[in-house]
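Retro notes, item 3 of 5
We never archived the inputs for the 5-phosphoarabinonic acid complex last cycle. Fixing that now. Sequence and ligand:
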Amino acid sequence: EASRSLGARIRERFEDVVILGIGGSSLGAKAVASALGGGLRNLLPKERRGGPRLFFPDNSDPATFRELLSLLSPDETCFLAITKSGGTAETLSQLAIAQAWLGERTREQVIAITDPEKGSLRKIAEAEGWESLPVPPPVGGRFSVLTAVGLLPLAAAGFDVAALCEGADEMRKRCEEPDPRKNPAALLAAALYAYDRRGKKIHVLFPYADALRDLGAWYVQLWAESLGKTEEVGPTPLAAVGATDQHSLLQLLMEGPKDKVVAFVTVEDRGEKLGIPTWHAEDPALGYLAGKTLGELIDAEAAGTQAALEAAGRPTLNLRLPRIDARSVGELLFLWEAATAIAGPLFGVDPFDQPGVEASKKITQGLLGRPGFEAHRTALEGRAPDDSAWILG
Ligand code: PA5
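Structure as it came back at the time:
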């Protein structure tokens, strides 16, 4: 409710909203915004968009952030600084740049979403008098899209967060079913685990919809960071999009090593039909398409690809959405989150931690001179700068 009312205020007041966050503090909202708004939403006029443009710079690449700020107006831009730990370097660096860019507008135009008590961003938000929302402490970053981390950006953009949560709640009830054969999350986790044990260690998510392209990045993070924890087990997630990847990854999926299982996501109702006109119907490459719709083409491509993979002895499964709307996307998100939580113990790992990401952070902080982290620079000592680099140009 707090996300909805604050989101409504942001929607009224601002033209643009920039989400400063990375990993689980960005990927979920981005996936839902793309699913519900489509990849071209920011190009639509405001009345068709239903709210401010949303930007997810995410990375610490200066080229993107510089260019983004050059496109925005400081009077019309709100920044949502999202970091559960409160100390993530990428997010805090972008925030430092953003507050300098906003100047005295900062107090009204930055909102913090972070731990209710701990961390640097919590302290900064209090010192600066910024509005803030809490990230519930027990919820890890990559499981946080259905908290303020995802809901505030989505509400600010005008998406139906109530329906998103209803869908998730509906799936939560189904996933509480004690009989694993009737529990969709248990079935998904068990199927992927069983395939993994039979050597299918690459788990491909293959939605046939552009709107679900960013869901792939969210899934990759969820599956990799949650399950990649020991040398013996840990599936490798891979994201594809149909039909585009029929002209790219499909060759590998069809004839490469038999180490993959492919989870299709298909859509029953694709909305308004877009017919393919009868044109050069005498040409065999066009004749059979005349009078069909683009939706029929992509659906046939999904069905054809799944059948071809199965015929080639490559396992697949299919998650079918009635349509891409807030409710079904909420269901899909919860399904994968619950499946991940169940898969962790099956693989014998804790799905909720990520100890492996710490080493590189410490060396980075040592390199940048953070007091107390000097010792971590030794990881690079004795290595010539081009030890592992191929120098081009
Ligand atoms: O899932 C996770 O815990 C991570 O991917 C985090 O979301 C990511 O590292 C960002 O962390 P934070 O929200 O603390 O800035």
